[in-house]
């Protein structure tokens, strides 16, 4: 008897441990995580604001200066964009591997790679998130001790878009962590209940 | 077989504990002051919420390390330990990344935002923070190895068999 898309494989004597529909929770979470990290990437990558402010007035002609706030100006934001782009690519890849990868398995590499890559991506997104959030906080409040002025009062839209990107990335991070834990626990359950488990799925 | 597994985990946790404790202590004791035009400017770690977060995250991680260092390898709480290890890893990663970002602004400044570097005025503070960041980075790497190692204990990754 083959398992028909249930959450756990049946306890039986000859089982192919993994079939295509081994549960819908993890793929659904991966889809949402993919969308969240993709949204964070796109919102931050397109984050740009230009403002023309009057710097000085000579006689009666005002001198304008055009200031631009771009995400590339801050290395923390660049890292944020890169980390989220990699996370969304990873989510997509894992989704494809889970749904269609049962036919290709190169000496059990899949069993090895999925938890390790998941952990790495969680660590990466957490790092990107932390750095960018605190740079945003610095831009919003400034730092009076170091004489760093805040920039959010001049570039409000830039800051608001950044805040939206941070929220999306945070949602993505939480989901990636949950996905990681669930898939590791499921992996262990599958390994335990497979009786004559000699070959890898 | 159990001993071969328990020693590396204990060693890793010990190294991680040492790294987090030293990161916390070095960050908390970073202090420098400079006098410019008869005004005294003091640079402490409490001046920046990022460095406060860094010290707090490493303090939490060292407390967690102290609690779990004496746990046996095949404990019945391995699920909770896996989740908590992952959470602490994310905490450490975000704290080190944030402190590095702010430290970069402090060292090189940010010309687009008009933020001048401060390391020229308070070099002692910068050195202290530097060492704290190195320690925090070591702690983050060791915690990542720890998580991978406990994953290997659960799901025997290399052999592909039952864990």
UniProtKB/TrEMBL annotation, chain A:
This is Uncharacterized protein. It comes from Vaccinium darrowii.
Automatic annotation (TrEMBL), chain B:
It comes from the Eukaryota. This is Uncharacterized protein. It comes from Vaccinium darrowii.
């Amino acid at each position: 008897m083959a398992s028909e898309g249930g959450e756990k494989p049946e306890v039986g004597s000859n089982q192919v441990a993994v079939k295509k529909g081994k549960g819908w929770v993890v793929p659904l979470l991966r889809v949402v995580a993919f969308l969240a990290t993709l949204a964070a990437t796109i919102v931050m990558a397109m984050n740009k604001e230009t403002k023309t402010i009057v710097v000085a007035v000579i006689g009666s002609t005002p001198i304008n200066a055009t200031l631009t706030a771009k995400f590339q100006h801050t290395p923390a934001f660049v890292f944020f964009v890169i980390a989220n782009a990699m996370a969304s690519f990873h989510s997509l890849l894992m989704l494809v591997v889970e749904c269609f990868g049962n036919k290709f398995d190169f000496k059990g590499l899949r069993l090895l790679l999925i938890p390790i890559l998941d952990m790495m991506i969680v660590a990466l997104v957490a790092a990107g998130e932390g750095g960018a959030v605190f740079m945003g906080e610095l831009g919003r409040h400034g730092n009076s001790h170091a004489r760093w002025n805040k920039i959010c009062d001049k570039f409000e839209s830039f800051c608001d878009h950044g805040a939206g990107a941070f929220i999306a990335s945070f949602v993505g991070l939480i989901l990636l962590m949950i996905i990681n834990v669930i898939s590791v626990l499921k992996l262990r359950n599958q390994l335990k209940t497979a009786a004559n488990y000699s070959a890898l799925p | 077989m159990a001993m071969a597994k328990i020693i590396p985990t204990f060693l890793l946790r010990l190294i991680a504990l040492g790294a987090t404790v030293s990161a916390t202590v070095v960050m908390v004791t970073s202090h420098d002051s400079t006098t410019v035009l008869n005004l005294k400017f003091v640079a402490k770690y409490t001046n920046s919420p990022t460095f406060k977060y860094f010290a707090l995250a490493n303090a939490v991680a060292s407390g967690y390390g102290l609690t779990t260092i004496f746990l046996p390898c095949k404990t019945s709480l391995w699920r909770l330990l896996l989740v908590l290890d992952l959470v602490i890893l994310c905490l450490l990663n975000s704290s080190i990344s944030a402190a590095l970002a702010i430290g970069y602004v402090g060292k090189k400044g940010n010309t687009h935002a008009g933020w001048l570097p401060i390391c020229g005025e308070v070099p002692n503070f910068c050195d202290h923070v530097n060492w704290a960041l190195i320690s925090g980075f070591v702690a983050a790497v060791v915690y990542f190895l720890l998580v991978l190692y406990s994953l290997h204990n659960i799901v025997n990754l290399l052999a592909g068999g039952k864990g």
